[in-house]
Amino acid sequence: MDVLVSAKGFKVLSWFIIFAGFFIAIVSQLLIKSVGDKFSKNALRLIGIISVFLMFIGYIILDDITKLIIN
After folding, report:
1. What are the tens digits of pLDDT across the range 36-55?
2. pLDDT over 90 percentage in the chain
3. pTM to 2 decimals?
4. Distance from chain centroid for Cα 33
5. What are the φ and ψ backbone dihedral angles of 35, each rounded to 5 degrees?
6. I want to staple 40 with a disulfide (CB 3.0 to 4.6 A). Which of 1, 35, 50, 60 is the partner?
7. How far is CA 13 from CA 21, 38, 45, in A?
């Protein structure tokens, strides 16, 4: 039972990581349109790419925890 409660906590954490990455990616893409400096645009693109990797890591954690709960 203790492992199941811990797994559900990690599941909530992984959903939070996925949504945070999605939110950061959307905000960085919106800011790219309003920024005129080339260096700032490249920095925001890099932040968007990092947030996509953050969502991917959250998905991997969610997939592993879901397998743990099912088994």
Report:
1. 888 888 888 898 899 989 88
2. 3
3. 0.73
4. 22
5. -95, 135
6. 35
7. 12, 35, 25
Give the span between the Cα atoms of 71 and 49, in whole angstroms. 33
Q: Encoding tokens for residue 65? A: 């925890």
Q: Cα separations (Å) of 43 from 1, 26, 37, 53? A: 45, 14, 10, 16
* Average per-residue pLDDT for the chain: 83
With beta carbons less than 8 A apart as the criterion, state whether 45 and 28 touch. yes
Which residue is it, tokens 């919106």?
30
Tell me phi and psi for residue 61, to 5 degrees: -60, -45
Taking a C-beta distance cutoff of 8 angstroms, is the pair 61, 14 a contact?
A: yes
- CA torsion 40→44→49→55, rounded to 10°? 160
